[in-house]
């Protein structure tokens, strides 16, 4: 039966319930008109979430001491913002162990607290067995100590539905980028040179008779080599273009609508004046 502080068990209690936010600011009184101190904290049963103790800072009543008050010994008056400790006396506060650290609150510590308060209960208030077993003890055995008495307060919880938006990632498709070989006919013009022989016959200018030695001999030949250029076409691969593949994220807003339910408060006051407090949403 571990105990935790209210804000550790219910971190958002101030946002979700203005009543709990207010109760931690209440003053604590004994004998209806004697101010004991103020509420410092609330200890909650970690298993059930039920209130078990009010931590009371006794201030100057018993200087500098914080003690535990079982919630069953408190009358909670929300309209007055007061908590009235039933039959609480200075002698009890002096006999109670000081509350410094929640880690020290074990079964033995609680038994010391319960022992002080049990002495102030009348026989009609005691409904629990006279003997206790640490292995089987539970708070329901002592309703006089742990049942909350809301003197003038009842609560009605109103609920509403809210849309919760989540996202999941799915594959929308795939883009494949590759390459293939395309064949086409390319043309190139190359100028080439060809040699040709030109034979020109002319009349001699000197017609004087002579008897040359090589005249009238067969087999005399003049040789001229003729050359021509032929095209030599080859292929080579060169880098024509580079393609870079990347991806970017585009953000878009998708709107969805759904029917939600909300509970509203119906007030039938039969003509009596009613004042509503708190935040209206």
CATH class category label of one domain = Alpha Beta
Radius of gyration: 54 Å
State the helix count.
Answer: 6
CATH A-level architecture of one domain = Alpha-Beta Complex
H/E element order: EHHHEEEEEEHHHE
The CATH topology of one domain is given as Photosynthetic Reaction Center, Chain H, domain 2
**Shape call:** rod-shaped
The residue-averaged pLDDT reads: 82
Question: Low-confidence stretches at least 5 residues in length (pLDDT < 50)?
Answer: 123-129
> Which range does the strand content fall in?
5-15%
How many strand units? 8
Characterize the main sheet. 8 strands, mixed
The N- to C-terminal Cα distance equals: 37 Å
Give the full name of the CATH homologous superfamily of one domain: Photosynthetic Reaction Center, subunit H, domain 2
Find the structural class using helix and strand composition: alpha+beta
In helices, the fraction of residues equals 10-25%
How would you describe this protein?
With 281 residues, this protein is of the alpha+beta class. The chain has a domain at 3-150: Photosynthetic Reaction Center, Chain H, domain 2. 13% of the residues lie in helices and 15% in strands. It has helices spanning 6-9, 13-16, 18-23, 90-95, 107-118, 143-146; strands at residues 3-5, 27-30, 34-45, 51-57, 66-70, 74-77, 82-85, 149-150. Strands 1, 2, 3, 4, 5, 6, 7 and 8 form an eight-stranded mixed β-sheet that branches. A hairpin with a 3-residue loop joins strand 2 (27-30) and strand 3. The relative contact order is 0.11.
């Amino acid at each position: 039966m571990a105990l935790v502080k209210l804000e550790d068990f219910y971190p958002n209690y101030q946002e979700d319930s203005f009543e709990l936010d207010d109760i931690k600011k209440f003053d604590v009184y004994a004998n209806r008109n004697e101010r004991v101190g103020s509420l410092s904290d609330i200890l909650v049963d970690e298993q059930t979430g039920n209130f078990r103790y009010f931590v009371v800072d006794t201030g100057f009543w018993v200087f500098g001491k914080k003690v535990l008050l079982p919630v069953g010994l408190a009358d909670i008056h929300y309209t007055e913002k007061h908590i009235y400790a039933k039959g609480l006396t200075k002698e009890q506060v002096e006999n109670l162990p000081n509350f410094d650290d929640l880690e020290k609150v074990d079964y033995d510590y609680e038994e010391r607290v319960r022992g002080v308060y049990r002495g102030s209960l009348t026989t009609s208030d005691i409904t629990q067995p006279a003997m206790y077993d640490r292995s089987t003890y539970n708070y329901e055995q002592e309703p006089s100590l742990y049942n909350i008495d809301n003197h003038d307060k009842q609560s009605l919880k109103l609920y509403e539905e809210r849309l919760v938006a989540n996202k999941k990632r799915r594959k929308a498709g795939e883009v494949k980028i590759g390459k293939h070989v395309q064949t086409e006919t390319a043309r190139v013009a190359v100028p080439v040179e060809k040699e040709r022989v030109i034979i020109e016959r002319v009349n001699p200018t000197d017609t004087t008779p002579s008897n040359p030695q090589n005249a009238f001999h067969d087999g005399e030949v003049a040789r001229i080599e003729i050359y021509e250029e032929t095209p030599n076409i080859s292929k080579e691969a060169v880098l024509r273009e580079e393609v870079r593949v990347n991806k970017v994220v585009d953000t878009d807003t998708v709107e969805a609508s759904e029917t939600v339910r909300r509970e509203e408060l119906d007030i039938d006051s039969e003509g009596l004046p009613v004042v509503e407090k708190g935040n209206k949403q």
